[in-house]
Amino acid sequence: MFTGIIQEIGTVAGVVRRAGGIVLSVRAPGSAKELRIDDSVAVNGVCQTVVRCAGDIFEVEAVEETLRKTTLGALDHGSRVNLELALRVGDRLGGHLVQGHVDCVGDVESVEKRPMSWMVRVGFPEPFSRYVIPVGSIAVDGVSLTVAAVERSTFTVSVIPHTLEKTTLVDVGAGRRVNLEFDLVGKYIERLTAGRMGSGGGITEEKLGAWGF
Description:
Largest sheet: 6 strands, antiparallel, barrel
Structural class: alpha+beta
Strand order of the largest sheet: 1-2-5-4-3-6
Strand content: 35-45%
Order of helices and strands: EEHEEEHEEEEEEHEHH
Shape: globular
Helix content: 10-25%
Number of helices: 5
């Protein structure tokens, strides 16, 4: 489990392709000294398992399914990546609950640079639009952000200077592909209510009363 608060920007030190997957070597002096084999780490918002640590470099293996659903396959030597170590019990939840299970890849449509923020507009597959709400939470390349505006299949986030300084979002521009993870709570609510509603349509006052609300 993660929070979407990036702790370090790492640099890809190597990419080895193996049987449909890849082994990523990431140079990250701060994170590597805390990581051990079998630990979880979020790389651009993708939860990965550490398979090797040596000095200031750690390695992870991204399998076929991960490459299909994320942007990790596009990383190359020298790519900068957002890193977050797994949440410890008792830590402050500074962002929002993030699993590191990317839902889909979005496309940056535009970046409007304002004096105190960047307004980043991202397009995403329309079937996921039910998970995006104004002033709701979303993880973009592992960064916890608040949705400033939403349309049918696009959303806009306002990125403050501190976040730009501490993450790779400062590198984004039109055409950049980004990993998206939608709000965990919303997905669970949808799943639970779908099972109780059956084929009877949406949530109504009567149904909420029958469920004890």
